[in-house]
Design goal:
The protein is about 20% helix and about 30% strand. A four-stranded mixed β-sheet has the order 3-2-1-4, with helices on one face. A hairpin with a 4-residue loop joins strand 1 and strand 2. The mean pLDDT is about 85.
Length: about 110
């Protein structure tokens, strides 16, 4: 397996810049990272989530999207852990959190099939 030292500097820099852009270190705000293994688009997407302690609203910002061919998942995880000490959650589109029925009829939004 290749080491994370062989990762292009641009990938490392994009991850660092994306995290620092949205990690504002505001008082009373919780920050964490979420890595989504998207099988529909064949990509990995890294998000940074934040939630103020009194709010129910969770904000998410996309940090980077990488093709699955660009880097193995294990190497991407190592790179993220080297870059940030924020907690890291994993999501997989094969195991969705809220599985809902597809919309069959919604004339307001144009779902008429």
């Amino acid at each position: 397996m290749p080491s994370t030292d062989n990762v292009p500097a641009t990938t490392k820099q994009i991850i660092q810049d994306g995290i620092s852009k949205y990690f504002l270190q505001k008082y009373g705000t919780r920050y964490w990272l979420v890595l989504v293994d998207n099988h529909f688009d064949n990509v990995f997407t890294l998000f940074i989530y934040s939630r103020f302690k009194r709010d129910q609203l969770t904000k998410s910002h996309e940090v980077i999207t990488l093709s699955r061919n660009q880097m193995p998942k294990t190497e991407l995880i190592k790179l993220i852990r080297k870059t940030s000490q924020l907690s890291l959650e994993f999501r997989d589109t094969r195991h969705l959190i809220n599985v809902v029925e597809p919309i069959r009829f919604d004339p307001t939004h144009g779902h008429n099939f």
